[in-house]
Design goal:
It is built from 5 helices and 3 strands; from the N terminus they run αααααβββ. It has 158 residues and is an alpha+beta fold. It has one domain. A 3-stranded antiparallel sheet has the order 1-2-3, covered by helices on one side. Helix 3 runs antiparallel to helix 5. The longest helix has 45 residues. The protein is rod-shaped and about 100 Å long.
Length: 158
């Protein structure tokens, strides 16, 4: 092998045949293929990050809505009618006090909710909206979560 032949071999690019007239055209047509691949990968990574981060935020908001419902039901369930406390009537919920206590508890938690009193049962349903961080880039700006809890009065003795 002569010195010049060796030099030609060193400048040869992989995938390019010697004397291939279309080699430079193929290289030109492949321009931007890495850019497109990079864009697709970045979008996929952002979508995955959105599912992880915003999914965790949704779980947290769900827990908050459920805890607020349980706390409000507990607070409202403690609003026993005063006549029941003195033994003058059966155990029942003072609906006005129960609803006020539950609403106050929900307001302190920063959650919207509905309160229903039926005899010795108090039901609290909560609703809250959680904004998204990453998924807003894909058109999902927020999601709604709900909580529900029931408190039942039971007569106990010592």
């Amino acid at each position: 092998m002569t010195h010049n032949a060796h030099r030609t071999h060193r400048t040869h690019r992989p995938g390019q045949a010697h004397g291939d007239p279309w080699a430079s055209q193929r290289r030109y047509n492949e321009r931007g293929s890495m850019s497109l691949f990079f864009i697709v990968v970045v979008i996929a990574l952002l979508g995955s990050a959105g599912l992880v981060v915003d999914g965790a935020r949704q779980v947290s908001a769900q827990r908050h809505a459920q805890a607020a419902a349980e706390d409000a039901a507990r607070a409202g369930g403690q609003a026993i009618s005063s006549s029941a406390l003195t033994g003058q009537s059966q155990l029942s919920v003072d609906t006005g006090r129960a609803a006020a206590a539950a609403r106050s508890n929900l307001a302190a938690a920063g959650v919207d909710g509905a309160i229903a009193v039926n005899g010795t049962t108090l039901t609290v349903s909560t609703t809250t909206n959680q904004s998204t961080v990453f998924l807003s880039m894909f058109g999902i700006d927020s999601f709604t979560v709900h909580g529900r809890a029931t408190a039942r009065l039971a007569q106990g003795g010592f």
